Amino acid sequence: MAAVVAIVAGLLVLFGTRGHDSKAEEPSGASTPKPSSKPSSEPSSGPSTIAASIPRPSESKTPPSVTPSKAPTEPPATTTQPTQPPATQPVTIPAEERPAIEVYNNTLRKGLADSVAGRARQAGWTVSGSPDNWHGKVATSSVYYPPGMLEAANQLARDLGIGRTTGALDNMKKDRLTVILTSDYAG
After folding, report:
1. Rounded CA gap, 27 and 53, in Å?
2. Global pTM value
């Protein structure tokens, strides 16, 4: 923040704080010459300000010499705090407040839905009904959630190692989460 203030202050000093129509810096009786449409071959009678705005090269032509030292140097001590906020912990929903879930298998792997349902029970989820096969095409393993259950869906996805949560389909129950496992499921 201090660097931004310093930069703004430097720009104000460099370019001034007044607009081009300001008369405050002109001595009384002085006037600004009007630009002429005719080129003039006579040199200007006033001082030029063009050179003042061009940076000058360094007076020294030789680079400064550095003598290497064999003595080890210690890094400067820093006492600054990290600027990034700590990562937020995912919300953990108590088991008694979690919605029921249904687990479906959309692969040829026998027993996948049963094993994932058991894993969900161990993590504190209530599995509703018996795990079954999902008929239809699903691109990737997903936890589907009805409105208002996004946080629960995210937690279930973390608990089961599923990388995708998405809104429930029309043919899904609206009082629970639905897990559909595809061939990309590694858990």
Report:
1. 22
2. 0.53
Which residue is associated with the tokens 């006579």?
A: 42
* CB-based burial, 105-130: b 16+ in 10 Å, e otherwise: bbbeeeebbebbbebbeeeebebbee
Residue bearing tokens 């209530």? 126
Residue found under tokens 């389909």: 169
The Cα 148–Cα 174 span in angstroms is 10
Where are the extended beta strands (E) located within 136-182? Answer: 142-145, 165-167, 176-181
Token look-up 């946080």 returns 151
Q: What is the pLDDT of residues 26-62, one digit of tens each?
A: 444 444 444 444 554 555 455 544 554 455 555 555 5
Give the separation between CA 40 and CA 33, rounded to whole angstroms: 13
* Structure-block tokens of residue 104: 């479906």
- Tell me the pairing of strands 142-145 and 176-181: antiparallel
114-135: pLDDT as tens digits: 999 999 999 999 999 888 889 8
Cα within 13 Å of Cα(175), Cβ side: 3
- For residues 150 and 154, give the distance between their C-alpha atoms in angstroms, rounded to a whole number: 6
CB atoms under 10 Å from CB of 180, counted, come to 25
Can you tell me whether residue 155 is helix, strand or coil?
helix
Closest CA to 121 of 154, 159, 91: 159
